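Comment thread on ticket #2218

A.B. wrote:
> Attaching the input chain for the structure job we discussed in standup.
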Amino acid sequence: MTKMRRLGSYVLFTLIMTLLSVGPGFSATADQEIMLTIASLKSIFDNKALSQEEQMKQAREIVLERLDLTRTSSAILVRHIAEYRHRLNEFTDVFGKLIRRSYLSRVDKVQKMKNASVLSSELYGDTAEVTLSFTLDGDRYEVIFSMHMSNGRWKIYNLSVGGVGLVGNYRAQVDRMLRTMSFDELLKEFEKKAAGL
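C.D. wrote:
> Ran it. Output below, let me know if you need it in another format.
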């Protein structure tokens, strides 16, 4: 796996996990949620009373709760949304499977994160960008999380590492694929990737 792909996997998983664990009635800022989520995920993997399987299950649930896959999917399909808006739910379902396979299988890497700190946090109305710095396997990374407020909680819809964004990467793939195949064929291709074929 290339360093960029490995980083993307770690980052997305981090991003995903990064925002979970703020209790009801507490309104955290986006950067606070990120740091609280990292702490929450680490505590899951530090809990030796849980089996490895249960640790992974709880961590995945945290990450999925903090993602807004519908907004991510809309951003990916933005150039085609007029034509395929009625199929957004289908795309979101398939994309969600791909995210689970590609990134959430590595959620346990949060245990190896060191020196995590927020470098910057910018608020733009109901959206925010938080830049997180951390060390993983001896390398230093900076990840930019794009978030929006949804039902009183900050949710992640994009992240960027080294100038490469999740949304932009998949948008380019979708644009390229839809030049030569139908939407149904695109969904089948994504299903194959999600299945590891």
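A.B. wrote:
> Thanks. Noting for the ticket: Confidence is low (pLDDT under 50) at residues 15-26.
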